[in-house]
Here is the input.
Amino acid sequence: MRKYLIGISAAALVALAAGCGGDDAGHDTGSEHGKNTSAPAESGAATEHNDQDVMFAQMMIPHHQQAVDMSTMAAQQAADAKVKDLAARIKDAQDPEIRQMTSMLEAWGESTSTEDMPGMDHGDHGSASGEGMMTPAEMQRLEKATGAEFDQMWLQMMIKHHQGALTMAQAQIEQGSNADATTLAKQITDSQQTEIDEMQKMLK
Here is the structure.
């Protein structure tokens, strides 16, 4: 009788161990399956893009950089405190946007070099001239101006510059496929249209 009970107990322990092992294996398989399906989905959503997205980022980066350069000039050369204030706000807004677009291009595996940017005329000293951008000669004129002359020239040039950005942003909104790039284009449209209105009032 004692041997019989020992035999039953041993069999029960073996069965219990086998059952637990099966549960653990099933749990591990499900866990690994979850990890393998979620990561690629997130990666694909972040990198999905088309040619318009690439062109938007590649052309808007030097466009923004020129606005930053013009705003840096205003900090030293403008006479009107309102011009200085607006220039500072433009620089503060567009510097982070340059970094954001550069990160987008890197995530997409696209070039961040201005030499590789499509549809750009690099002109003298490597300066690009896209939608609404100033030519090298115009930038030199602005650099030499001071006081009230600078203020008027800067406002007129920056309005034209912003209008070019609106054209580029609208193309992205209509033709782009990357959600982050299109959201940025809408942000640029809203902020720069507001700044255009402000500058037009200042000119009057």
